[in-house]
Specification:
Layout lengths: L1 H41 L8
Length: 50
């Protein structure tokens, strides 16, 4: 019984780490796109979405 619980816990932790890793990569890509768009046309423009 303990081995099954440990197996499930290990699978949850591996899956969670995989999801967090891909979320970090997605956040880095979004931040890079934001920086590129900021320097490409965002400087000097008044107003905006935020």
């Amino acid at each position: 019984m303990l081995l099954i619980v440990l197996l499930i816990l290990a699978l949850v932790l591996v899956g969670g780490g995989f999801v967090v890793h891909w979320l970090f990569i997605a956040a880095a890509i979004v931040a890079l796109i934001w920086v590129i768009s900021f320097f490409a046309g965002g400087i000097g423009r008044r107003g905006g979405a935020l």
